[in-house]
Specification:
single chain, alpha+beta, Glutaredoxin, 3 domains, 6% strand
Length: 280
């Protein structure tokens, strides 16, 4: 009888110990979940939260304070520069894997494929890091009518206003649409600019392009943030000299880093012209 009683006591102690152990495990799990909620990254594992950026990308620069603030808050967000070959390759592989086409900045979870293409405010990025699906921003149904050059006739401006009014009605879903008068009040070029320089141009061809650009630059000196031709040509020629681009058929292939910088410069010129309402 005594042996049976002792056995029951031992069994009860074992059960109680198991219950206590389970409680400790649950408490530990809760603590662990609380401390890793923002990253979902186990010790020793690389974060799947990436943001791909590029040199000279204005929106990447604009996003930097948000990225740093989120990192300080404990989010394990890795910033990767696509100028580095391995990062560029990883970006291309992820875009192919998840069927995405995006420039920079590109925020992506490499495990789930959930991402954000382009610049967003910090609160939106925080929702993405917390696992929410972020919808694509509204897009226009068609290109906006080309803004007329400065100094055109009133008839041309009135015709453009009619076209813009029709376009704005068709795209009323877009936020912060400006009125026609607001757009026309912005700085506009007086003349058509030359086409952006091709990275494959020779130095002689670049100089010829520079003469055309310099003429246009002087005619449109009222426009803000225009770069002088010397600055553009110096940068292009310096980058070309590093790769041998345009120096002959036996020139080495363009490296990913420099090619990307050349493309970035060309995109900057395009964006500036688009901002000014000039299409080529």
């Amino acid at each position: 009888m005594a042996d049976k009683s002792n056995t029951e006591v031992l069994e009860a102690e074992v059960v109680e110990e198991k219950v206590d152990t389970k409680k400790q495990e649950n408490n530990l799990k809760k603590t662990s979940n609380s401390s890793t909620k923002k990253t979902d990254t186990k010790a020793g594992e690389e974060s799947p939260w990436y943001v791909f950026c590029s040199q000279g990308c204005g929106f990447c620069k604009k996003a930097e304070p948000h990225i740093e603030a989120l990192q300080e808050e404990g989010y394990d967000l890795l910033k990767l520069d696509v100028a580095e070959g391995d990062n560029q390759k990883l970006s291309q592989e992820l875009q192919q894997e998840f069927g995405v086409k995006c420039g920079t900045p590109w925020f992506i979870n490499a495990d789930t494929g959930k991402g954000v293409c382009g610049y967003r405010e910090k609160d939106v990025l925080k929702k993405w890091l917390d696992g929410e699906d972020i919808p694509e921003p509204p897009r226009p149904k068609g290109p906006m009518p080309r803004v007329p050059l400065l100094g055109v006739s009133n008839k041309e401006e009135l015709e453009w206003k009619k076209e813009y009014k029709k376009w704005s009605k068709e795209n009323s879903h877009l936020p912060n649409l400006q009125t026609a008068d607001q757009i026309l009040s912005r700085p506009r070029p007086k003349t058509e600019p030359p086409a952006p320089p091709n990275p494959q141009m020779t130095n002689e061809q670049l100089d010829e392009w520079g003469e055309k650009y310099d003429t246009w630059f002087k005619e449109n000196s009222h426009l803000p943030n225009l770069q002088p031709v010397d600055v553009i040509l110096q940068r292009l020629k310096r980058q070309k000299s590093m790769t041998g681009v345009g120096q002959g058929q036996n020139a080495p292939a363009v490296g990913g880093n420099v090619q990307q910088q050349l493309n970035s410069l060309e995109q900057k010129v395009d964006k500036l012209l688009n901002h000014l309402g000039v299409t080529l």
